[in-house]
Amino acid sequence: MFLLAGSGCHAQAPAASGREIFPPAQTRELREFGAVGDGRADDTAAVQRAFANSDRYCLDGGSRTYRVTGTLKIEKNVCLRNITLVQSLAPFDTRPYVRASCPVTTDPNAVVDCGDPALRTKDLEALKVSLSVRTLLIRPGSDSATVRVLLDHVKVDRGHYPELGSRTDSAGIWLQGASGADLRNVEITGYGKGYGLIVLRSRDVAVDRLWIHDLLWAPYSGDTPLVRAQVAAIGWNTIPIHEFRKAGEDGVAVGKFYGVRVQEQLTCALFSEVHNVTIRNARISHCMAKFVDGNLPWQADGLDISHPSSDIIVDSPVIDSTWEGMDVLSKGGDIVGLQIRSPKVSNSFGFGLKLGNQLRDPSITGATITNAGIAGIVIYGGVEGASIKGATITGVGVISAGGRTFVPWPEMAHSGIRIDDGPSGTGNQRAVPRNVDIQDVDVSNGAGVRGYAILSRVGTLARVRGLRASGFSGPSTYGAVETQ
What we know:
The protein is mainly β and 484 residues long. It is built from 3 helices and 37 strands. It has helices at residues 44-51, 121-131, 228-234, and strands at 4-5, 26-29, 38-42, 58-68, 72-74, 78-87, 134-138, 147-157, 171-176, 178-184, 187-191, 194-208, 211-217, 240-245, 256-261, 266-280, 283-289, 300-306, 309-315, 318-322, 326-341, 344-348, 351-360, 363-365, 368-372, 375-380, 387-396, 399-401, 404-406, 414-420, 422-423, 430-431, 436-445, 451-456, 462-470, 477-478, 481-483. It has a 31-stranded mixed sheet that branches. Strands 14-15 form a two-stranded antiparallel sheet. The longest helix is centred in the first third of the chain and has 11 residues, at 121-131. The protein starts with a strand and ends with a strand. The model is unreliable at 1-19 (pLDDT under 50).
């Protein structure tokens, strides 16, 4: 038996926490648990055996590649390093159950019976596995417990099937319930719906040199393939797509596939209900949807933050070719203490940086945004005290994908910075941003694109100091904007 005594993972927690991340005294290699690590043998059982001992040893993959099938679970503290996991699960064949075309709906909550057949009982379990595949699932065994986590030089390849998974229940790495987590040099790639990385209900999290790239999703087999001209004609936000609903979910009586208005089918990274989080030097690129005539960064977000969260620093992220570079949104409690420092965002199909609803005093400093289909930065809904300082926004209205530059929203009001209303959460009322402060901003539009450097669609005043606008044929601002 190969054993390195005393060579454990003595990692330090985020500086703000002042605690050590889980430091086991000994390191064990995965080969000691029977894993082959040649990228061809199915190592699922052996790797799972090793993970059953994750609270006793720091587990080292020896820089080898381990092919696995389905979800690997860790319910204890874990130190894991020097490993590549490649997902080999094939998707459930949905063609017998996804047959009909679905009508267009603009309601994001609508679930439409398109006439597809109900799922046979014998196929339900296989479908469930396919829809909820989480290559690496780290979650404590009970809701009251927490885990400590160190991932160092860990790579997850989600596989080769863009139609695998579902947008809410699948992930490359699913981390939940951590109290002290250190993720260093984590790489995620590969195909499928859902999330590259999702971090839920966790605190004291440090993420350094996260690299998520070349993720791709596609409609389920049997659904209408995506064609650029057809999707654009129907509407980039209104195309119907099939999703599964079990009996009783969303009011449906029968478990089967239903038609819904498309929403983000892929999110490269999501942090939700998190506190004291630092994300440094993240690289996120090519979060894409599979189109017949060339893939697009469509309905596939880059880095999202949601729900009640606090004290989050995102420092020097580089985000390219996504639906929205960053989408920060809370619908159930405030997000406070958010700082986005020196972001570089390019080729965002919709918005480069999008901050909405219940945010308190968010700040964006030193942003560089190149090519955003609608707006470089949007502040909307009940945001209080947003601050934007030192932004350079170029190529407003255009994006580049597959070697082609085009204007995806020709009828949209394009802008460098957009201030808009949003749902208040109370009846049909709308909330508006307040106390928006903008300083030292350079904005230029894309060639031939009409728009504004600053566009305010609400009555509350936005203060702007040091605006430099170029390439606009008319006024550089519109709405309640006070420039100095």
